[in-house]
Design goal:
The two termini are about 30 Å apart. The protein contains 19 helices and no strands. The radius of gyration is 21 Å and the shape is globular. It is mainly alpha-helical.
Amino acid sequence: MRMKSYFGVSSLATFARVLPQAVLTPILLSKGLQYDSIIWTQVVYMIALTLFEFPSGLLADRFSRKKLYVLSIVVIGGAYGIVWFGEGLAVMCVAWAMYAAGTALSSSTMDIHYASILRDDEPSFRRFFALDRNVILAATIISALATSALYPLIGIGVYVVSIISFAIAAAYGAIALPKTPIVRESQEEAPPRVLEALRRDPWLVLAMLLFALTQLAFTPFFQMWQMVFLDVGLDPSWFGVIFVAFQIINIASNVAWARLRHRQSVSFALLGALLALGAGILAAGGGWTIVLVALIPFPLFLYSNSLVFSLQSRAPVALMSSMSSLMGTASTIGAILALSICLLGLQITAPSVILGGSLITFGLLSVGLLAVAIRQRFADSPAQGRDPVESAA
C-alpha cells in the first residue's frame, strides 16, 4: 500500500506547516498587523474553513484523493508565499483564506484512502490511526525545535524554508504516493447520499455532535493556556518546552487509545476526568493550576480520538471523505462559537475561569448526550451489529 511514502509526505508537509507557527505573532507584527488584526486573520481562516470543508470532502469522494492531497500541499505553500511577500491586513486575510482552502482540501484524502482499506481489519486500522497521528506529532515537535534554532538566525526566512519543504513534499507525493481510485465510480451500486446515511445510522450524527462539542474544551484550552500560566506567574521562557510536552502527551494518548477497548464506560470516565479538572482549575491557584491545566490534553485527546475513529469505522465507504469533512465542518462551527465565548468572557472574568467553566460545560453536555444515546440504544432494535455506543465512544 506504499504507506511509508504517505507518512514521509505527511511528515514533511507538517514540518513545513508548523515551522513559522511558534513565531507567527512577531512575524505578523513585522508585517504591519496589530494584535486585534491578527485575531481577524484567524476569524477569516475559520470562516473560510467552514465554507470549504464539506465541499472538499465531496470532491474527495468523486475525484482522486491523491491529486487533492498533493494539490492541498501546493495551495498551502502558495498561502505561505503570500505571507512571505505580502504586507498589511487585507493581504494576510487573503493568505489565511487560501490556507483554509488548502487545509480543507487535505482533509479526508490519503488518510481516508488507507482507512477505507484497513477498516475491516480493526487491529490494523487502530495501528494506522494511531501511527498517522504520531507521525504528525513527531514532525510537529521536530519543526518546533527547528524554529527555535532557525528563527534567531534567519528571521522571517523560516517561511522560505517552509515553502521549499512544501515544494519537495508535493513533488515527492506526486511521484511516490499510490494512485487512488475514484470512490463513487468504483462502487457497483449507486452510492448512498449523505443525509440518507445519517438517517439510517443516527450514531454518525451522535459522533458529529459530540465532536463539535469538543471545541468547548479544545478552543479555550489552546487559546487560554498561555494566559492562565502568565496569570499565575510562570515565566514565558517555559512555553516552548510546554508546547513540546503537549505533543508528547498527545502521542502518549494515541498509544493508550490504541490499547484500550472502548466502551461507553471509558468515555464517561474521560469526561468525568475533564469535569474534575475544570472544577479543580476554578478552585485551585498557583502551582496547582499549572499542574491541572497540563493534565487536560491526555483525557481530551484520548476522547477525541475515539470519536474520530467511530466516524471512520461506521461511515459508508463511498461517503467516508464526505462524512469526515462534515465532521470537520461541525467542529469548525463549534470552534467559532467557542472562540466567541472566549472573547466575550475575557471582558468580564479571568482566563482560568473561562477555561474551567468551559471544561465543566463541555463535560456535562457530552455526558448528557451520551446518556441519551444509551437510552436510544435500548429502545431501538440492535440491528446495527456492534454495540453502537461502544464503537462510537
